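Subject: for your reference before the review

Hello V.,

The reviewers asked for a structural picture of the protein, and I figured it would be easier to keep everything in one thread rather than splitting it across files. Below is the amino acid sequence we used in the manuscript, unchanged from the supplementary table.
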Amino acid sequence: MRKMIVAANWKMNLTLAEGRQLVEGILAGLPELNNEKEVVISSPFVHIAQTMGQLKGKSHIYTGAQNCAAEAAGAYTGEVSAAMLKDAGVAYVIIGHSERREYYKEDNATITKKVNLALANGLQVLFCCGEALEVRDANTQNAFVEGQIQDSLFHLDAAQLKNITIAYEPIWAIGTGRTASSAQAQEMHAHIRSVIAGKFGNEAANEMSILYGGSCKPSNADELFACADVDGGLIGGAALKAEEFLGIINAMKNAKK
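And here is what came back from the structure prediction:
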């Protein structure tokens, strides 16, 4: 049985005091989860030590980072390496998020280097992929997302692939006034799984967790998580409020897979 994961992406939000209060609220309401379901808190770098301390000794909830450098070490002012993240106790790292691709011009080659370094340092990778509005309107989204996966993951072996979780971001439905339906989410998730199966085989594809990263909230989490190929969510805005995030976690807990 593949894992279901609800991962928070705080992005560039919250002071240390606000972050501590948010984690306290999440822990106060966190339901009991089994080994097939887990939570990840991906905070800004400056929060990681504090969050690690709060999560120490807790089960099924882990610390994540939002990015890592494309180089192992050296004169790269402002960067944080995969080795540093591992040494700090981080379990997961988000790589290839749409905002990194768009705002910081990270291409597939750069993202591939990050994937390789994260895996080499024993981190779990939350690999983001997804299409913009013009791609969706041209009805070329399947080929576009497949290309992102091929360029950055197809060089991996089966053992490395076990440390990859894919997060699909329908960029066209985030902040545009358009909404991705659960049927559209399922359609793309099924396509992604078929792409993985075509390269790595059905067993590897069926074991891979594929998360939905498009405005998941308590009101639609039950419907999304009921989809056969949706294995949780990468949560942005709703992860900044304990009550909302707990609502999504509870939807995951109650999902039948």
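For the response letter, the relevant points are probably these. The longest strand covers residues 37-43. Residues 4-254 form a domain with the TIM Barrel fold (CATH 3.20.20.70).

Happy to draft the paragraph if you're swamped.

O.
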